[in-house]
Specification:
Layout: H1 16-33, E1 37-44, E2 47-53, E3 66-68, H2 74-81, E4 85-87, E5 108-115, E6 121-129, H3 137-209, E7 213-218, E8 224-226, H4 228-234, H5 246-250, H6 256-268, E9 274-282, E10 285-298, E11 304-313, H7 315-328, H8 331-395, H9 401-435, E12 445-447, H10 449-460, E13 469-474, E14 481-483, H11 485-503, E15 510-519, E16 522-529, H12 559-570, E17 574-579, E18 585-592
Parallel strand pairs: 13-15
Antiparallel strand pairs: 1-2, 1-6, 2-3, 4-5, 5-6, 7-8, 7-11, 9-10, 10-11, 12-14, 15-16, 16-18, 17-18
Keywords: ATP-binding, Kinase, Nucleotide-binding, Phosphoprotein, Transferase
Domain PAS: 199-270
Enzyme class: transferase
């Protein structure tokens, strides 16, 4: 939106029509009030001017008469106050008995300020009398009405000037916009001409430099233009170029009928471009040419008038294709032989990978079992030695009650240690067996995953024991699947254990979200927490058996390996990890809704 125009009012002209109307008002005012002078004053610092004066008897003021400001005039006070001033008798008023107007015989005064719409002071409208005059309320109201009429005219004058200046500004802006647009068009024209010259140069270098020749065929007259490169490519001289009949005279007879038929078909329906490969006689040799062309002009009946195209020498490519065809004749045999070699190599790689994986698992299992089994052997050896010692003391009659009690206490502690390490070894063996779990061990049935997950999480994470953990389930309550519920329970149990052990170990709590949705025959389970996340350098290892970041702190590194095995072996699905350090971890699992 355009900002409002700031009209300068100091020299703003008042039109003749307005002046005439104001003059009539002053004359009428002087007659109604029976006074000698009615004035409209206009301030023009440092002076004030009699703008209009009533044509009445005894009026001492003449139009365009000027008086200096700062001399104590009545009108100065009116303009300074921006309000009414009434002086009934200046001779008896100590504030006005020195007023310059007394010298003209004007001893009473009533005036009001005249204000432009922008609050600048125009001047005053006032009446003066040579006699004492209290100017009653009717007179005051009459002067106010005349003042309102004059200010309406001032508003109109101001607005007319503002609109004129706005129109002038708009015209100036429009003229500037037109000038800029013209300059832009001129610049665009120059740029377009430069681009056209550059395009022509690029066209010339692209075609001629790449070895392509250009031809231009006038179908209506039969004439043809061949570029210098095209003439060189075809081995022709300008005198030999009489028309496009050279196709029939120099094209290989084996390709001529087919090319003529293709060209005739294209000219009947000239859509897209015409492309043809054929041999052409150049001197005593045959070369292969690639012809490309397009109809660029039609008559009023849609018949082709002009066709432009290019010739490219593809002899080298054709020779290479011939050689390649010879090579490809024995390709199947070579592919079959190479495939057999590749299959053998893949089998060997598969065997090596299985052996390496088995070796890693056995090494990991041996490492984990070494501690509890070593402790069992140590405890059993110590127990055997203690039993031998107590038996010897008994045989030699040296066994005391205190010694027997110490033996029994130590035997109890040793048995407890034996049991704990035996249980740990048994747990390790049980988990190791789960790595190779078979889906046949799992019962398959129809169930509501929402209910199964809700019951499982109430058992795993009761609110009274885990008040700082929030659970959010996003599973449709009407979703029914036919799958292995115990496998899903084991999977989520291991993921929850992983979150508690690793994700929330520093925060002491957080949020766990489980989503299960179905898309046709596939289910997607998303398990996510807002824990500390998993570093990028660890994400490729988390599903490896016996990989743990809590070595020596009770972690065995089998939880996520079991999750991976359940997903692949039982659910016949796939799992991926998405995690950023400090932003939690999400396990996305996709598996068939009804695995076979």
């Amino acid at each position: 939106m355009r900002a409002a125009v700031d009209v300068k009012t100091a020299n703003l002209a008042v039109g003749h029509d307005y002046a005439e109307k104001w003059q009539e008002v002053l004359d009428l005012l002087a007659r109604l009030l029976r006074i000698p002078a009615a004035l409209i004053m206009r301030v023009q610092p440092p002076r004030i001017k009699v703008f209009l004066s009533s044509r009445s008897d005894g009026n001492p003021y003449e139009e365009d008469e000027l008086a200096d400001l700062g001399t104590g005039l009545y009108c100065e006070t009116v303009m300074a106050r921006r309000g009414e001033l009434i002086v009934p008798n200046a001779l008896s008023d100590l504030d006005w008995d020195h007023n310059p107007d007394i010298k003209l015989g004007m001893i009473s005064y009533m005036g009001l300020p005249l204000i432009w719409p922008n609050q600048d002071v125009f001047g005053t409208i006032c009446v003066l009398d040579s006699e004492e005059n209290p100017y009653n309320a009717t007179y005051r109201q009459l002067l106010a009405q005349f003042r309102a009429m004059v200010e309406r005219d001032l508003r109109q004058i101001y607005n007319d000037k503002a609109r004129a200046e706005e129109d002038a500004a708009l015209r100036a802006d429009e003229a500037e916009r037109v000038r800029r647009e013209f300059e832009r068009l001129r610049a665009g024209e120059r740029k377009a001409l430069q681009a056209l010259r550059e395009s022509e140069e690029r066209w010339h270098f692209a075609l001629e430099g790449a070895g392509d020749g250009v031809w231009d065929w006038d179908l209506s007259e039969g004439g043809v233009f061949l570029s210098s490169r095209c003439q060189q490519l075809l081995g022709l001289f300008p005198a030999e170029i009489t028309g496009f009949q050279l196709w029939q005279t120099r094209m290989h007879p084996d390709e001529l009928p087919a090319v003529q038929a293709e060209l005739a078909s294209y000219l009947q329906r000239p859509e897209g471009s015409f492309v043809s490969e054929h041999r052409f006689r150049r001197g005593d040799d045959w070369i292969w040419l690639l012809a490309r062309g397009m109809v660029v002009s039609l008559d009023i009946h849609g018949r082709p008038l002009r066709m432009i195209g290019t010739y490219s020498d593809i002899t080298a490519r054709k020779q290479a294709e011939t050689e390649l065809q010879l090579l490809n004749n024995h390709l199947e045999e070579r592919v079959a032989a190479r495939g057999a070699e590749l299959q053998t190599a893949m089998q060997q790689i598969s065997i090596a990978e299985k052996q390496a994986a088995l070796a890693r698992m056995v090494a990991g299992m041996a490492h984990e079992l070494n501690t509890p089994i070593g402790n069992v052997l140590l405890c059993s050896s110590q127990m055997r030695a203690d039993i031998g010692a107590i038996a010897a003391d008994d045989a030699e009659k040296r066994l005391s009650r205190k010694g027997l009690q110490e033996f029994l206490q130590k035997a109890g502690e040793t048995c407890e240690l034996l049991q704990r390490n035996s249980e740990q070894a048994g747990d390790l063996i049980g988990r190791f067996k789960q790595i190779a779990v078979d889906q046949l061990d799992q019962p398959k049935r129809s169930f509501h995953p929402a209910k199964v997950m809700a019951n499982l999480l109430e058992t795993l994470l009761p609110a009274e024991h885990h008040p700082h953990i929030r659970i959010e389930l996003r599973i449709p309550t009407d979703l029914v699947i036919e799958n292995y519920p115990s496998a899903l329970e084991q999977l989520v149990s291991h993921l929850v254990a992983n979150t508690l052990a690793h994700g929330f170990d520093e925060k002491g709590g957080g949020a766990i979200r489980i989503d299960i949705g179905r898309d046709q025959d596939e289910l997607t389970l998303i398990y996510a927490d807002d824990g500390k996340g998993i570093g990028h350098e660890l994400q490729s290892k988390v599903f490896d058996p016996f990989f743990t970041t809590r070595m020596g702190q009770g972690g065995m590194g089998l939880g996520l390996a079991l999750v991976h095995n359940i997903v692949q072996a039982i659910l016949k699905g796939r799992i991926r990890l998405e995690s950023e350090p400090g932003q939690g971890a999400a396990f996305i699992i996709n598996f068939p809704a009804n695995p076979s």
